[in-house]
Each structure stands twice: as C-alpha cells, then as structure tokens.
Amino acid sequence: YNDKTFTVWDLSGNVNVRNFWRCYFMNTKYVIYVIDSNDIARKEIYLSVLIQLSQEVELIRCSFLILLNKSELNMHISIDEIEEIIKKSYSKRKIAVFSCTTRKKESIIEAFDWLIKDDIS
After folding, report:
1. Which domain holds residue 75?
2. Is 71 annotated as contributing to ligand binding?
3. What is the DSSP code (8-state) at residue 7?
4. Per the domain annotation, does 66 fall within a domain?
5. Within-domain flag for 115
6. Which are the contacts of 102, defined by CB distance < 8 A and separation ≥ 6?
7. Where does GTP bind (predicted)?
8. Tell me: the pLDDT tens digits for 2-30?
9. How confident is the model at residue 91 (pLDDT cuts 50, 70, 90)?
10. The domain spanning residue 116 has which CATH number?
11. Distance CA 101, CA 59 (A)
12. Is 70 annotated as a binding residue?
C-alpha cells in the first residue's frame, strides 16, 4: 500500500482461537482490530477483547488501528466509546478509530493512510 510492504495476519476472533494470538505478537508494530459496529449482542465481548489486547505486554508499544465496520448500518458502538476504553488501558498509546464500510473504499483508504503516516513518524 503506497509503496509500503506489510505482513498482515488475519486472525479469527473465535474464542477457541484467541489463545493462539500470542504466537503472532512478537515484532508486531500495529494491531488492526475490526469490530462489527452493528452487532449489539457481541458488543461487550468486542470491548473486553480490545481491553485485553491493549494490556498485553508484547503489544505495549504497538499502535492500534480500530475499524468499526458496517458503519452504513445502525452503529451501536461509537468511536468515542472505543477511544475512551483504549485511553484508560494505556494512555500513551497511538490509537486511531475509523468507521468504515465495504461500500465506500474511501473509509478504508483513510484508515490505512493513518497507518502509513504513523509508520513514518
């Protein structure tokens, strides 16, 4: 993306797979965490897992890019809510929260532009 090469691991959020996430933490610079912002039933799970990730020692220096997916639908999780949770967990961490939708590629481009800009700084 924009002449940058990233190695990306797409890890399932399934509860049975989460224990294996640590296998991918070493040398990680960014965590891209995707939340279905329309899924009110799993809201507490999404937020709990996000807090756990933000407190992992191996990820303490990582920047977090959080994507609230399906923003074209009724969003039940707000950008402000996510930012507040992360700031409580680790106040000095670089974070960015974007609402996005697959229907508008500009929303994804904006998020990845932040990632590139953060990588340069």
Report:
1. 26-120
2. yes
3. -
4. yes
5. yes
6. 69, 108
7. 13, 69-72
8. 788 888 888 988 889 998 999 999 999 99
9. low
10. 3.40.50.300
11. 27
12. yes
